[in-house]
Every structure is written in structure tokens, then in C-alpha cells.
Amino acid sequence: MTRAVAAAYSRALTNLIGVFSVVARSEFSVQAPSAVVMVRPHRFTVNTETAADNRFQISNVDAGDLSPLAYAEITRAAELLQEQGITVHLFEDEDSDAPDSVFPNNWFSTHAGGYVAIYPMKALSRRRERRSDIIDMLKSRYRVQEVIDYSGLEPDGLFLEGTGSMVLDHIDRVAYAVISERTDPIALERFCAQFSFEPVLFSAKDPSGLDIYHTNVLMCVATDFAMIGLDMITDSERRREIVHRLERTGRRVIGLTNAQIEKFAGNAIELLGGNGRILSLSTTALLALTKDQIDMISVSARLLPLAIPTVERAGGSVRCTIAGVHLTPRD
């Protein structure tokens, strides 16, 4: 897909959504950050080291150089977010040894009260994504009291890949997490104890029986609704518990089919723009949603589709490319 086609495609989908979307309420929500960190790749490629447990990846064989396309997709995505009044801290990456750098949400997260967490990563190549300049920017632009670094757990084989491994409910203080090689229960417990979240662990598998590698592939928690691939949760009792827990907070639970999960429909993030809350997701994901699902989302958030088909070849979508900033800006 060329830059021009991708841009036209995104604009057309945005116009389509406007026909049946309701203007989102503009009130503040701790769930929806108004600033984000993104990383623009200059040497994008699909990471062969992570392919073993990420079946969403598409091989680079015969694909040619994908870097210009990925660069253009993230550039345009950042522009669209900024046009909606969202602050985007856009960093450049020219390191060919960190192929997944476009997914910064896995190695750090930020939290109200001035806290930053740095996470232990399974793949050696992903550990090279951690950047002091991003942490320094957060300290200079926002009120940061403490940076808590869990990367020391890596030699013990204890991994927790940020808001890929966990889908955080900042309102009810729950950390939903699928058990996988990238999400260790001990690391999760340590994070939850430090950051005052309740861990909710569960098993989830795709139709072929493989473990879901990251929780944010099948689940998105917004202020007034949650999207989740319920059929992938293997324990029926646990499935009911999770639905009840989400509904108890007043959220509407939107079930996603396995086919919709394959199209990254669960890999979305709610943000706060200048005119209210926005659900940012990929054009691939949007096209997989039904009109009824879109209508339910549109009650409280406008949909903002971002065209990133090249980036999605690496096995992640819009949520993975965005690290939310839940910090207080300095004066």
C-alpha cells in the first residue's frame, strides 16, 4: 500500500465513521491518556526471534525493504493523533538490531502519581529497545517521582512485557493478564504489589490451540466499554468472572470473535483528544468490526482508524505502537 493510498484509505474510513458516530464526551478519564510516546522506525523488519510464539507475524520473505512503508505509516499515524489534540512524543530509531522498536509499550509504562515502570523482555533483541532518552524526556516534561526497573528479572527467566502482557484497568485497578512465556505470574505479582493493581490471570488460546502471546491482542479496556475475545479464554468460569468484573464497573462488554482478533480488533487504545475520548485502532481492525459493535463504541468514544498494514506484519497493531503517558505535565 503506497503512502497516498494509505492516507486516502484512512480519510475515507474516518468519514465513514462520522456518519454513525456520536461525539464523545469530553470529561477526563484516568483510563484515557492525552499524551503518548511513539517510535518511528527507519530500518523496519519482522523480528524472526519472536516468531515462535507470535503467530500474528507475517514473514518478510520476498517482501523487499519494508522500512519506507513502516516509516510513512507511523508518521501519518502520529499526525492524525496530533490533529485530534493528542500530544505525541515521536522518537526516531535507526537501530537495525532492535526490529520491534516500533512497539514501545512493551518495555515501559507510566502511572499516575509520577511512576514509570521498565519491564523484563523475553527476546534479547527486544531488550535493546530500552532507551534512556525516552525516560529522560518523561522526567523533563512530566512529574516523575520514581522509575522502577524490573529488567533485573531477565536472568531468572521472569518476563513481563509491559502493557502487552497486561491490560490495565486504571479505574478499577485491575491488571488482566494472559499466562504465556512472556508473562510470568511472579513478575506480575511483583508489579501489582508495587503499583496497587489486582492481578487477574487467565489462560487464552487461539483456534489452533496455541497460547496467546500478549493480552492486548485480545483485550482492550476503555472508560465505558471493554472489547475482549471471550472465546479464546479456555476456562468458562474464569470467562464469566472477567465479564462480571468488567460489567460491575459499569462497562459494556463487547465480545470479539476469533476472526476479529486475527484482524487486531482487540489491539486498540482509548485516548483523550481535544474534543473528547477517541478509540484508536487500525484500519484492518475497523473493517473487522460490525456496525452494532461500532455503534456501541461510538456512544462514548469516536473511532480513529490508523492505516499501518506494514507494521502489522510484525505481529502488533495500533495499541502496540502507542505507550500512553499517565503522568502530570510540568508547568
TrEMBL record:
It comes from the Bacteria. It holds the Pfam family DDAH_eukar. SUPFAM superfamilies: Pentein. This is Amidinotransferase. It comes from Mesorhizobium tianshanense. The lineage of its organism: Bacteria, Pseudomonadati, Pseudomonadota, Alphaproteobacteria, Hyphomicrobiales.
